[in-house]
Amino acid sequence: MRIGFDRDKYLRMQSSHIAERRAQFGGKLYLEFGGKLIDDMHASRVLPGFTPDNKIVMLAELADEVEIVMAVNAKHLARNKVRADLGISYEDDLLRHIDAFRSYGLYVGSVVVTQWTEDNRQAHDFKRKLEALDITVYRHFPIPGYPGDVVRIVSEEGYGRNEYIKTSRDLVVVTAPGPGSGKMATCLSQIYHDHQRGISSGYAKFETFPIWNLPLDHPVNIAYEAATADLDDVNMIDPFHLAAHGVQTVNYNRDVEVFPVLSRLFEEILGSSPYASPTDMGVNMAGNCICDDEACRQAASQEIIRRYYRALVTEKREVIAPVQSQRIALLMAKVGVSKEDRPVVPPTLEVAAATGEPASAIELPDGRIVTGKTSALLGCSSAMLLNALKLLAGIDDDVNLLAPASIEPIQKLKTQRLGSRNPRLHTDEVLIALAVSANGDDNARKALDQLETLRGCDVHTSTILGSVDEGIFRALGVQVTNEPVYATKSLYRKK
Fold first, then answer.
1. Class assignment of domain 343-482?
2. Considering the domain 7-215+245-289, what is its CATH architecture?
3. What is the pLDDT of residues 371-400, one digit of tens each?
4. Of 272, 343, 330, 265, nearest to 302 (Cα)?
5. Residue 462 buriedness (CB in 10 A; 0-12 / 13-18 / 19+)
6. pTM for the whole thing?
């Protein structure tokens, strides 16, 4: 992989900049963390060299000074909101986050449930569950007229109703399972309560994208628009920063739109606003750590194509209008790429057209393309996986890693005992069979040893993957796109 981002420089600069911001306020700093904190896969894809755990590693270096507060919106609990990329509920993701933070030696002080109402049964149940796990829970309430009615918000009838989150450290990171969780409101509520108690505290925001000191039309920033196409976010020049400093910077519409209100809130709480622009609030140094701009441009362009395919599949699955895909198609045109610029797409479609059956292709780290076709024994993803592992292990193409005699008993078990109508082996079944064979077969062992090499590789399939194959590729760290076509005409689809 061509590296475009200096990870070590980022860790140094980011830690230093956070320290400067803490010194600015001379007391507590509430640091709102937007985006993914423990598994920022988007950043790792568009900034090659940025590892998914970059941000948490940086925080771990400050472990003795950091306290984490997790926020979750009670309305999201009521709707059983799910993280689309992982397929798990916000409830489960919050617990997953806490486990991950603790594994890095970070202290999780509490959880705050925002938008709390007494009639929200799911929120009550979740609070009881957390407290049974010895996790302290606080409640923040809806404020009528929020965010426009500043006088009411900054009063005993507004922030004053919220339960004060007791913290023991001066760098308080406020994060959440997803957007709209009330992170900023939590920070401002805490500053209000601190001020009432004579405690000096301030606020800053850590949002990786859009990158403020990259051009508006840079593919990395456009890739962020593609990633948030469902939220209808738009990157824009920060007019407040331009007016205050005469410098063009990039922010996104929601932060720009809310900034005048945010400034008034600061003025009401602190007497004056510490910031002249939304950009001023940020502490993101990612743009200063790009070491190969072209590598990042190419990576971001590929990510936009991935997002396009993901939107097409979502629209097909949910039978909804092609709003997101059309929006991303415009972004693709903006950076001058098409779906055919994804190297694994043309070979996949060629094999599918030649065989009349589902097909797939993978691009290996050295740029070689390996395809897979559907057979009586294997699905196309399974065949492609075995073909790729053989090539990486230096095994002749005519060598069968799995003998038909070892596949047939599995097929019989599936169809005759477990009620499956599809006799072909899925990727999980192939990998298990390969692992069993590796005990006595040197070729199988060599192939299995190459699995880690597939991490970060790109795959395309001519049909929408089933949940099993999708899960296996996710576990392998493979980046998959699909044509928005089902392999069968069944109406019911297992999720």
1. alpha beta
2. Roll (3.10)
3. 999 998 899 999 999 999 999 999 998 898
4. 343
5. buried
6. 0.92
